[in-house]
TrEMBL record:
Protein name: Ig-like domain-containing protein
Superkingdom of the organism of origin: Eukaryota
Domain called Ig-like: residue spans: 142-210
Lineage: Eukaryota, Metazoa, Echinodermata, Eleutherozoa, Echinozoa
Membrane-spanning intervals of the chain: none
SMART domains: IG
PROSITE patterns: IG_LIKE (PS50835)
Species the sequence originates in: Stichopus japonicus
Amino acid sequence: MKGFAESISDTCQGDTIYSERGSRLEVQCDITVEFIAVFWFRGTDVDNGQLILRNDHHLKTVMLEGYNITDEGAMVINELQIEHEGPYWVRYLDNGANSHDRTISIHVKGNAVQEPRPVGMLVKGYKADSVDRQDIKFLKIGSELSLKCPNGELGEWGILYPNGKYDWLWRKYPEYEGGSCSDADICEVEEDGTLIVNTVTYRDEGHYMCFSRTGQFDMVMEYPVKVHGESTNRYQ
């Protein structure tokens, strides 16, 4: 069976690709054999990566929103954002079922790294009387993330991403309740203050922090979260 291509561009030899935020990025890899299938992963290898794209005998499958794959097996990111940064790994299978692996990293330009901002910083009279730092949580892609926070009169959940960006996930103050959890429907906060992410992906990795105030007592909880991939031995 004829493969998708015999030779395409000279990237994917451990390169770092720099591209502007909001741009369309198409990545083709140097592969000089005919291949019948290609698999793109977020991560560094097949055991610790998230399968995002596949083109198997010209049947294309997109596993993660925001990505696409061409007939020639190139990865397409429709609108590049900061969450697309990081390592990628691609495997080609030739007619003899031999694998040919390539790696790249993507760096997004046009994103000023923000200074870390602790939760509760904008609350009048903020003072962290107690900071409870938890051990690192290791989660598989697709699992549920559940983090406890004391239920107080005021509350806030935030995440510091590995690239230094801070995001308000949820806030409960007399004048405001909301955040990116409710805006994007990516997570939820239960009545007792527990943060829930139903289906974890690589973009959920980071340093989670919650702030709670009861009376004159302020408390901060910190949860480092690492995400790793499911084993996909059938592609090896």
